[in-house]
Amino acid sequence: MPPFTLYTIGSISLGRNPADITQDLTVAHLAMEVSVWFHSSPTYNNGFTFMVLRHAFEADRARVPRMVIKVRDASVTLMRFEVEDSCRRLGLDAIDVAQLVSMDPNPGNLVDQLQQGGGPLMDELASLRAWGLIRQAVIFIHQTQLRCSGEGGQEQIDRRRDPVLGVSQPGSESAGVSS
């Protein structure tokens, strides 16, 4: 997979006015012409952002950009649905980078599973990668602070100091956490 470009276009402003997407399509096409990565979410503008992107991609399939797509990880079912639905709605074979949005503050969430080396969400993530639906994944931690088991028991991680945890590459021995 090619490295990230120097710039990535955030698409949150696209699709705010679904009745007239002319300017939005112009912005998307200009970004496609310069081959920057796109960042999006199925929830932006009640899904109309994906509508704009799909129209832009269909008009120039040769320039469909690399994508970072937010995927909610509250459950195995939601994670799989959002990956498959995003690919279908955008006309993509795969998501280049799934930005997992950690929504569950309870014990056993994806962050805990990463630290423990396994669990149902980790298994689903591995399955989505094995099927080729996502190429890489990173996790964005929503909570201001997270629980974390350390040698001294429970400790707190301040999200402002450690905002992103990465998931290891496909084929590695185990999924690890890095800052």
Question: How do the strands and helices of this protein lay out in sequence?
Answer:
Layout (H helix, E strand, L loop, with lengths): L7 E3 L11 H12 L3 E4 L7 H12 L7 E6 L3 H15 L4 E8 L7 H7 L3 H11 L3 E8 L3 E6 L2 E6 L5 E3 L13
Parallel strand pairs: 1-2, 2-3, 3-4, 4-5
Antiparallel strand pairs: 5-8, 6-7
Explain this structure to me?
The protein has 179 residues and is α/β, with parallel strands linked by helices. It has one domain (8-166): TIM Barrel (Alpha-Beta Barrel). The chain has five helices and eight strands, in the order E-H-E-H-E-H-E-H-H-E-E-E-E. The strands form two sheets. A six-stranded mixed beta sheet has the order 1-2-3-4-5-8, covered by helices on one side. Helix 1 crosses helix 2 (48-59). The two termini are 21 Å apart.
Structural category is alpha/beta
Radius of gyration: 17 Å
For CATH, the homologous superfamily is named as NADP-dependent oxidoreductase domain
Q: Could you spell the SSE succession in H and E letters? A: EHEHEHEHHEEEE
Form type? elongated
Strand content: 15-25%
Total helical elements:
5
Which second-level CATH architecture applies?
Alpha-Beta Barrel
Q: Could you tell me the CATH topology label.
A: TIM Barrel
Mean pLDDT: 81
The termini sit apart by 21 Å
Query: What's the arrangement of strands in the largest beta sheet?
Result: 1-2-3-4-5-8
